[in-house]
């Protein structure tokens, strides 16, 4: 399976480095029920990663030269990897001058925050888990996000609210974007598209609001495709033109449950 993944990356023309482990790359799959259009995801636990293997990953990240301007840490940690792994990577990356973008949840997110990543992208449910609060209203969400920023646990919080849009919170700014108007065929890849587009835009010099608009456009483009197909560059640019930002105070409430974006 690892060789298959490497082949797919090569076919896309993406540079990568393979860090081999003893176990096989995990496979996940999704099922869409045609009668209700509900989506079911089956996420496998994957192999256990040994201490020597995850330490090798840390050493390789520490030795990146030149250090990346942005480093994205995304997803749950494999079995065997300590819950503070992302916290260790954040401290290491910041020492080399990299900005870390963190997209994870649960104890891994909680333990990473004191190391102060540059940007975090929780969903509404993930922010609820982090804070232990119900976060019933937009004001509750804004307050929770601001507390993270004011505590210097992140410079930027990009909070996704599923069908309710998304909220951007920094020390000096708050912005809200409505969900892109599109027919939802699948939510697979929308969250990763959100993060990827934001980092891509920031990397070429966009300000955080402009990057936020691109993230909404990329997520919306992904939602319009079935399965694992994502939005094209042309689609993202088209959606970007329709993304407008407003004061988050104009939002009345946030939904209790939302698709993972």
Question: Main attributes?
Answer:
disordered C terminus, UDP-N-acetylmuramoyl-L-alanine:D-glutamate ligase, alpha/beta, seven-stranded mixed beta sheet, 261 residues, single chain, two-stranded antiparallel sheet
Fold and architecture overview:
The chain has 261 residues and is an alpha/beta fold. It has one domain (28-250): Ribokinase (UDP-N-acetylmuramoyl-L-alanine:D-glutamate ligase, 3-Layer(aba) Sandwich). It is 39% helix and 14% strand. It has 9 helices and 9 strands. The chain has helices spanning 2-11, 51-62, 85-95, 106-112, 124-131, 138-150, 190-203, 208-223, 233-242, and strands at residues 29-33, 38-42, 70-74, 99-103, 119-120, 156-160, 166-169, 174-177, 245-246. The strands form 2 sheets. It has a 7-stranded mixed beta sheet, sandwiched between helices. β6 (156-160) and β7 form a beta hairpin. The chain starts with a helix and ends in a 15-residue tail after the last strand.
List the helices and strands and how they pair.
Blueprint: H1 2-11, E1 29-33, E2 38-42, H2 51-62, E3 70-74, H3 85-95, E4 99-103, H4 106-112, E5 119-120, H5 124-131, H6 138-150, E6 156-160, E7 166-169, E8 174-177, H7 190-203, H8 208-223, H9 233-242, E9 245-246
Parallel strand pairs: 3-4, 4-5, 5-6
Antiparallel strand pairs: 1-2, 6-7, 7-8, 8-9
